[in-house]
Design goal:
Length: 146
């Protein structure tokens, strides 16, 4: 019996498509499931330095929920780099402006913050409603437990 470690190569990886329905699901739970699928950690051939993940489509992002008082008390902050360039926004305001960002920001924080992470992040597709243009890829539905 050989004791060699198998390392995945980018050319050998078989990519699948998954769809996650975020309606009435906690934002963090949806983001965690999406991050695992994007990263490829659910596969036996997972290799940390290779993008071995799958494509993920998240629908109904506008119907995702927060627990506790996060909807009104949590703040998303940004800084432009200029004087007075601080901006902050609550999830309630962001849901009105662009609800896809709720899921996208949560997932972005859960993947590596480097070149590999940016490559992984490109495989995420988030939509506010129930419609998505990826039906031709025949995505498999994934259930998120609350």
């Amino acid at each position: 019996m050989s004791k060699t470690t198998i390392s995945a190569k980018a050319s050998e990886i078989e990519r699948k498509w998954f769809v996650i329905d975020a309606a009435n699901k906690v934002v963090g739970h949806v983001a965690e499931k999406a991050a695992v699928l994007l990263r490829g950690k659910h596969k036996t051939l997972y290799t940390p330095h290779v993008d071995s993940g799958d494509f993920v489509v998240v629908i109904n992002a506008s119907k995702a929920i927060f627990t506790g008082k996060k909807e009104t008390q949590k703040e998303y902050r940004s800084f432009s780099g200029f004087m007075g360039g601080h901006k902050s926004e609550t999830p309630a305001r962001r849901r009105i402006r662009k609800p896809e960002l709720l899921i996208e920001t949560a997932v972005k924080g859960m993947i590596p913050h480097n070149r590999l992470g940016r490559q992984i992040y490109r495989k995420l597709n988030v939509y506010a409603g129930a419609e998505h243009p990826h039906a031709a890829q025949q995505p498999v539905a994934v259930e998120v437990t609350n």
